[in-house]
């Protein structure tokens, strides 16, 4: 998304770099606002449900960016960016806290190293996948027109959103009790797991 959105806004829609940055700004604002509700969401639903549902939602929101075109109002783009910022922050925060939830204190240093390495690799793979996917749908990147660039980025949003949606299957492997000592998610019988 950090690769495709500026490409869509600047090359496809013709916005300046400043305007493109302003259209992306709702994402970090949503991410900061999420921090207030995150503990309640995890306590209510638990990591498994949150990560499965949120991954599906994140994939659908990615695909929704394929509808952004010259006729799309700035308010709609801002609303989509805010929603995407909220779900992506929920995703990253949930995964990052789940990593440490069941790790003994003596192993947190190793867990931190592995989590940081995994996160950096996933971000790198994400940018690489987005650029390769966009390259498949943009025939001549050096001499393409704005409509062709927009069409290519739209196709990339659809493919990447579909892949994200499919990746929710990974979180089905979690147990409902995973991370409950951090989220304070209650069992179905109402007893809190600690």
Task: Summarize the model shown.
By secondary structure, this protein is mostly helical. The protein has helices at 4-12, 17-24, 26-64, 74-101, 108-137, 146-166, 180-183. The protein contains 7 helices and no strands.
Overall description:
The chain is elongated. It is built from 7 helices and no strands. The chain is an all-alpha fold. The relative contact order is 0.18.
The oligomeric status of these chains comes to single chain
| Strand proportion | under 5%
Find the count of extended strands (DSSP E, 2+ residues): 0
- Helices, by number, come to 7
What is the succession of H and E elements? HHHHHHH
Label this structure with key terms.
194 residues, mainly alpha, 7 helices, disordered C terminus
């Amino acid at each position: 998304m950090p690769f495709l959105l500026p490409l869509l806004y600047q090359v496809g829609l013709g916005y300046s770099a400043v305007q493109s940055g302003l259209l992306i700004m709702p994402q970090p604002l949503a991410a900061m606002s999420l921090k207030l509700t995150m503990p309640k969401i995890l306590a209510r639903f638990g990591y498994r449900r949150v990560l499965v549902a949120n991954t599906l939602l994140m994939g659908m929101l990615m695909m929704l960016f394929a509808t952004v075109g010259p006729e799309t109002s700035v308010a709609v783009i801002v609303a989509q960016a805010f929603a995407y910022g909220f779900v992506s922050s929920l995703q990253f925060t949930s995964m990052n806290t789940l990593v440490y939830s069941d790790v003994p204190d003596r192993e947190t240093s190793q867990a931190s190293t592995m989590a940081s390495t995994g996160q950096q690799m996933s971000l790198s793979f994400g940018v690489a996948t987005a650029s390769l996917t966009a390259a498949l749908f943009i025939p001549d990147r050096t001499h393409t027109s704005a409509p062709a660039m927009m069409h290519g980025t739209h196709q990339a949003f659809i493919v990447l959103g579909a892949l994200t949606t499919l990746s929710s299957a990974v979180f089905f492997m979690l147990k409902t009790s995973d991370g409950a000592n951090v989220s304070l998610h209650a069992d179905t019988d109402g007893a809190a797991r600690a």
